[in-house]
Specification:
heterodimer; A: alpha+beta; 5 strands; B: 229 residues; alpha/beta
Chain lengths: 377, 229
């Protein structure tokens, strides 16, 4: 059964509790309306796993991931890095090198993990704009880019980049900068791999060619030392030396082919990447800010109302639990005493208040005093 | 016997006034006061409360008035609350002799009885007691005075001092045939009431009244939730 005292407190405190319950959502609604408008820009990119160039960072071995998911994962990883965010901010123009400070010097050279991390940074490159920021400014820019750029896979081969900002041009620029920075990282990564492959194959070719020369010399020496041997029939030793020369020659030919292939990849990196990372929908300048649906607009006020309802309920519970006064027979339970009845609170006639503002104390006693007289009213 | 005058009446909310009157009638019936009175012997009812300001004087006045008017018998209303002197102002008894004078031997019972005009209700003021009234209250004089009243009146209603702030409340309550405890709704705490009942353990407590009661819960809500009242 609902305690009478709880209901009595609820009715007594109802105006006090209703006020914040109604005011809070109204306030939140007004604050929402008065907020800065946000513009969004979208880009859709067709992506494909790179062929020929091994990129461990793309996790191509995992057949459960689509190419778009792999690229989104890499791009999101990059977006967690300070260097990549600063690069985007610099491309957009949010940060820039101060005038007169653009003299050649040592770059901070901050490079994110994964793509492009091994590319040597030239010591003579100009300093990045990020290197002129204080730590607090750098942190603000870091969080700004983090809040503004969102990347996700959309289907198997579509990568969606969404950028948000308080003005539409910057929102678009953020999208362009993200694509450009990521493209740059992909190219430098591919370039780095071709350089490594080329170096490795060249060194292997030198060794293989030396070995081939040695084997050819050994075969030549055998022929000169055994002029009477019938080369057509051949001896066992002759056939062995000739086979070694042929095998080594095949190795040298293979290495030369690999170097040629690597050189082809090197010169076609730009075209290859263009085919595997193609921007289908470029970021555009939004002509109106984000329009939230009615439900989204109402969610925050409703949330505020729910919070206020909970607070009011808590307040009511505290008041109820803290009230140990005797209000009804419920509060007399357990006491070894008889309940005789209620005596109502006596009030002055309301009409009297309009005519007189005299103090109204003791009217209950005056009424009680009149009970002895049958004529008294 | 001297006459007293009632203070000028003020306009009251009449339905509430009648409701209050009926409530006190119900209380008198529930307490069984008419049934408890023995033939040819007055019944002494004490009205007290845990603390001051909870309405015991109002309930005492109403009880005495209704007993007098309804049963058409002589009733004495005695102000035995020597600290507040509540009845003095209501019946214009300022400067008149009271119990204190009887206990001190400077007045007789007849001289302190003041009849309310047109009724069978006599009112006794508390009078001026010395700074420490304890010994006087605990003396046999007060018992004798109440016995005299018992012999002369059908009902004697004592407006007792509050129980918790002073020990005299319990002492005077011990002289009564029955005591009604008045609580003020939303003011008296349960622990105060428990303490009061405990202190009046040697007294015949007739029951408890919840005074100043005003329901904030509409009737339809009471019915809907089955709220106890």
């Amino acid at each position: 059964m609902v305690p009478r005292k709880l209901v009595a407190h609820l009715l007594r405190l109802l105006p006090v509790m209703l006020l914040p319950i109604l005011l809070a959502p109204a306030l939140v609604f007004l604050l929402q309306r008065g907020g800065t408008p946000v513009y969004q820009s979208y880009a859709t990119i067709w992506v494909q796993d790179p062929a020929g160039i091994q990129q461990p960072s793309l996790n191509v071995e995992n057949s459960f991931l689509t190419p778009a998911q792999r690229q989104a994962s890499v791009l999101n990883d990059l977006l967690q890095t300070d260097g990549f965010r600063m690069q985007i901010a610099e491309l957009v123009g949010i940060i820039s090198v101060p005038e007169g400070a653009a003299t050649p010097g040592t770059s901070s050279g901050t490079q994110g993990p994964g793509l492009g991390s091994a590319t040597p940074v030239a010591s003579a490159t100009p300093p990045s704009a990020a290197s002129f920021l204080t730590s607090s400014q750098r942190e603000r820019v870091f969080h700004l880019i983090g809040r503004s750029v969102a990347v996700g896979a959309n289907g198997s081969n579509l990568l969606a980049i969404t950028t948000s900002y308080s003005d539409p041009e910057t929102a678009k620029a953020l999208g362009d900068a993200t694509i450009a920075a990521y493209d740059s990282r992909l190219q430098s990564e591919a370039q780095r791999q071709t350089v490594i492959t080329s170096d490795y194959l060249s060194s292997q070719l030198v060794v293989a060619q030396e070995e081939l020369t040695n084997r050819q010399n050994a075969l030549q020496a055998f022929i000169q030392a055994n002029p009477g041997v019938n080369l057509a029939v051949g001896s066992v030793e002759y056939r062995g030396l000739a086979a070694q020369v042929e095998a080594q020659l095949a190795i040298v030919n293979g290495l030369q082919s690999a170097i040629q292939g690597n050189q082809f990849n090197s010169v076609s990196i730009t075209q290859g990447l263009a085919a595997r990372f193609s921007v289908l929908d470029h970021p555009r300048v939004a002509d109106h800010p984000i329009q939230e649906s009615r439900i989204q607009q109402l969610m925050m006020p409703i949330g505020a109302m729910m919070v206020m309802v909970l607070l009011a309920a808590g307040y009511l519970l505290v008041v109820y639990r803290a009230d140990h006064s005797v209000l009804s027979t419920e509060d007399l339970r357990g006491l070894d005493v008889r309940f005789l009845g209620y005596a109502p609170k006596l009030k002055r006639d309301r009409r009297q208040w309009r005519l007189s503002f005299r103090r109204d104390r003791g009217h209950a006693r005056r009424a009680a005093a009149s009970f002895a007289s049958r004529e008294a009213v | 016997m001297a006459l007293v005058a009632l203070r000028k009446k003020t306009a009251l909310n009449q339905p509430r006034r009648r409701q209050f009157q009926e409530s006190i009638r119900s209380v008198i019936e529930a307490a069984g006061i008419p049934a408890l009175r023995r033939e040819n012997r007055g019944f002494v009812v004490g009205v007290t409360s845990p603390s001051a300001g909870e309405g015991k004087t109002t309930v005492a006045m109403a009880t005495a008035g209704i007993l007098s008017a309804d049963l058409n018998v002589d009733v004495a209303l005695v102000d035995s609350d020597f600290e507040t002197h509540s009845l003095v102002s209501e019946y214009e008894l300022a400067g008149r002799e009271g119990i204190a004078d009887v206990l001190a031997g400077t007045a007789t019972m007849e001289s302190v009885m003041h009849r309310v005009p047109g009724t069978r209700l006599d009112v006794v003021a508390a009078g001026e007691l010395p700074s420490d009234p304890g010994p006087l209250i605990r003396s046999g004089e007060l018992t004798n005075f109440i016995e005299q009243l018992r012999a002369s009146y059908a009902y004697v209603v004592l407006d007792l001092p509050a129980v918790l702030p002073s020990s005299s409340g319990r002492t005077v309550a011990g002289l009564c045939d029955g005591v009604i405890v008045v609580t003020s709704a939303g003011q008296t705490t349960r622990s105060e009431l428990e303490e009061t009942i405990e202190r009046l353990a040697q007294t015949s407590v007739l029951g408890v009244i919840i005074n100043n009661w005003r329901s904030r819960v509409p009737a339809w809500l009471e019915r809907a939730f089955g709220l106890g009242s």
